[in-house]
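QUALITY CONTROL LOG
STEP: pairwise intake check
CHECKER ROLE: data steward
CRITERIA: each record must contain a sequence immediately followed by its structure tokens, with no blank fields

ENTRY 1 OF 2
RESULT FIELD BELOW
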Amino acid sequence: MKLTRDFFTAGPMDVARGLVGAYLCRVTPDGAVFRARVSELELYTQDERGCHAFNGCTARNDAMFMAGGHAYVYLCYGLHNMLNIVVGPRDYAAAVLVRSLELAGCTGPGKLTKVLGITRGDNKMDLCALNSPIWLEAGEPVKNIVCGPRIGIDYAGPDAALPWRFGIADSLYLSRPF
């Protein structure tokens, strides 16, 4: 079942936890549907220094201020596109970075966007739209979610230690161990 706007606009922490085990889907150029389970993600909100929107809205991060259920895709290190799912209500910047999928070659946020062909051209895509080529579907609830600090945000000071990285505890498809 495709996740709806109501799901994505709930509280960011609830949505983040609810996305662990969901399925990320994409229509491929040949019309087939790619579908893989989300095994790891990280939550970012405007209230903490790890978030791109901590200092307000800019041309780079304005997608984060859209209603939950939109894509926020940015370029990292000038090399990798990173897929984030905007969560929470409109005008409150929050998003989850999809770090890993349960699929070989998709354990890392840059690797999974390469495999799925996700680019900055997908930024601001409405993932809830009827004919969206990228969407998320509900999965079985995950009972064994593990959490820990997010990866690669030492610049965020004490906020880097927030346990806002979530994953499936027994998954073989994590970007790094917890």
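ENTRY 2 OF 2
RESULT FIELD BELOW
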Amino acid sequence: MMEYDYLKHKKILITDDEADLLEMVTSILEQDGFKAIKTAGTVSEALHLCKEWKPDLAILDVMLPDGNGFSLFEQMRTFTEAPVLFLTARGEDEDKLTGLGLGADDYMVKPFLPKELSLRIGIILRRCYKGENPIVQLSGSQIDFDRAEVIKESARFPLTAKEHDILQALYRNAGRIVTIDQLCEAAWGENPYGYENSLMAHIRRIREKIEENPSKPVSLITVKGLGYKLVLAGK
């Protein structure tokens, strides 16, 4: 279990040319509560995802069909500072020194213990994103993501896991439209189809907690035909 719940919302990219390894690492992360996980089997796929999806952590293999992880890392560093963990069968000291010398956050050798991988990922995320999760100010309330609570008129209203997931997705894109599909994926994972009605029900309950007048929302706005938008206080 991750020490800080907000870390499970971080987007993680896994790059490896072995499908079984990708499936295993994805399973490990999902068991830890991570929902935003994507995989790539080549350097070109990984670069595309890094530019378009913008992961918060990348797990890279060294040996890839169209290049190597060291070169991939250097290309990534031209446009992102996301932390990187090398996970590879290349366990020679020279390779470790190369990876760490480039600026990678950690270097693990296959085979590995799933628990050790989870611990190392947790250490990297806590170090890189420490103190990122503030209390969010809305027009008539506050969201405390660390405690999963809404504070309104000195009262505290607990958030369910799904409400927390939806609000996190909205907060990460505060002031911008988040589509219905994106919110469903944030709350229900990679196969979000068919959850639109459930999403609407969760939005209603969230408004009851965060809005002074839920029937006339000013913080969680519906953008007809597109999705929803979270408006922060003073914005």
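INTAKE CHECK: passed for both entries
DESCRIPTIVE NOTE, ENTRY 2: Residues 72 and 78 are 10 Å apart (CA to CA).
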